[in-house]
Amino acid sequence: MAHRTPIESGAPDPKPFMHPTLLKNYGNWKYHDRPRPGVLHHVSHSGDEVWTVRAGTQRQMDVYTIRKLCDIADTYADGHVRFTIRSNIEFMVADPNKVAPLISALQESGFPVGGTGNSVSMIAHTQGWLHCDIPGTDASGAVKALMDELHEEFIREEMPNRVHLSTSCCEINCGGQADIAIIVQHTKPPKINHDLVANVCERPAVVARCPVAAIRPALVNGKPSLEVDEKKCICCGACYPPCPPMQINDPEHSKLAIWVGGKNSNARGKPTFMKMVASGLPNNPPRWPEVSEIVKRILHVYKNDARSWERLSDWIERIGWPRFFEKCDLPFTKYLIDDWRGSRANLNASTHIRF
Ligand code: SF4
Ligand code: SF4
């Protein structure tokens, strides 16, 4: 049989685009340090050194902004850039004399330099209105509003440990674990437009999609449609993407919730899942002041109360959830943190889905 080369669709090989000093010393680094917030300094066993300057971007950028960043790279750096997973841009230079002019050029163009070490790094956020079809809020707008207020924490490294924030514009898809996450929270079951279901939705696929088996086929006004058992529905929004006539986004009932204590890495402690600590916050563009106020409050208490190197989840683990709610002056309700002890009763809602 003829040999077939596998089709790779993962991350492309970074080496063709790598800064020459990084390429030359690939896998041969001796140590690294941070001479100031926003600057990493790597030293190789060969004696080569490279400085990386990190700046915040708004992630969803127009072509003029990208050109501006590329011009800065060509003029002040060595023409190489890379993006971090939190949408920061990094410029690498092999000459220490280029670091200060590069920082000045970035700051003069409105790009804050920071996001390294124990800072509040740029918020990882989901695509929202730009290229997704199901968002209930504008995640990138909430990021802009919040980072305007957290600018000082981005350019300094004064937190007990690094702080990763995220925003998600639906409850079910992209996002991930973060120290503090802002996530859409639907509070009412979907409203069904029965005239459209038969034309638009593949009904068995929609029925199968519901995690608690709350959707059934139904005949409404003589047309094939669907119905929702609202007592079972957990308002997750998973039926809306495959069946847009099951509209769940609502200007009043789609709220925002804040979750805390998530962590992907296993440095110093195991990865952790975040838990909801504030719910039903208004989805209030363009500045989302209610959300910003609570996020800043949690950050402030964490900054003052945590011990050095405690991540937010470590801090809560040490002081306990009741103290967390007290210190952050957040009301504790039955809708908040779930330890999943009751999940068998909560989730075993049908005979065909058993947990
Ligand atoms: S979080 Fe949901 S709505 Fe937002 S971009 Fe991802 S899939 Fe789309
Ligand atoms: S919102 Fe979620 S729980 Fe409710 S019917 Fe749709 S898929 Fe099921």
From TrEMBL:
4Fe-4S ferredoxin-type domain span: 224-253
GO cellular component labels: sulfite reductase complex (NADPH)
An individual GO BP term: sulfate assimilation
Keywords assigned by UniProt, alphabetized: 4Fe-4S, Iron, Iron-sulfur, Metal-binding, Oxidoreductase
Record EC number: 1.8.99.5
Molecular function via GO: 4 iron, 4 sulfur cluster binding; dissimilatory sulfite reductase (NADH) activity; electron transfer activity; heme binding; metal ion binding; sulfite reductase (ferredoxin) activity; sulfite reductase activity
Cofactor annotation: siroheme; [4Fe-4S] cluster
The keyword Oxidoreductase is assigned to this record: yes
Record-linked PANTHER family: SULFITE REDUCTASE [NADPH] SUBUNIT BETA (PTHR11493:SF47), SULFITE REDUCTASE [NADPH] SUBUNIT BETA-RELATED (PTHR11493)
Name this polypeptide is given: Dissimilatory-type sulfite reductase subunit beta
